[in-house]
Task: structure prediction
Amino acid sequence: MLKGQVQVDEAYIGGKFRVGSGEDRKSQYENKTPVVVLVETNGRASSKPLEKVNAATLRVAMIEKIETTAQICTDDLSSYPVAAGCFDGGHQTVNHSEKEYARKQLNPTTNVMETITTNTAECYFSLLKRGVYGTFHHVSKQHLHRYCAEFDFRWNGREISDSQRRDMAVKQIEGKRVFYREPIALP
Result:
């Protein structure tokens, strides 16, 4: 379970919008899959695809992975106040529509200055999207959860040695066997 200050953000993974393609900007999200990431500030990450982005789906994703004592930091999406309402640490937002990306404030319970931001979550998404666009080129909705798990593993192992990361990977495959009975055809 993630604890402390947890940043929550969403992004849409799929095809890249191309200027001059004839596609209008609003339709660019139709063929993309929303993904939510939950990231401890300076800590671990957990991401997963969602069917749609609303308060109910965000709340379920948050409750599954975040301790109830955590403080939630999000952007100004209107679904977040309802989704984060059950966390004892409170809910803080940054107002991206007003070009606010981080702010310092005094935590009244600990009397310590803290930074309210979603920059760590956005950093996670920049790595995920760069992996999709630059390395994998296409990811299907059916397997997107696997790509999210891979990037969670990369993020969570970023500060350990290669041999420790290898050992961690090997431990996770014990007792598992993957079969692909039929190839996945693109639509």
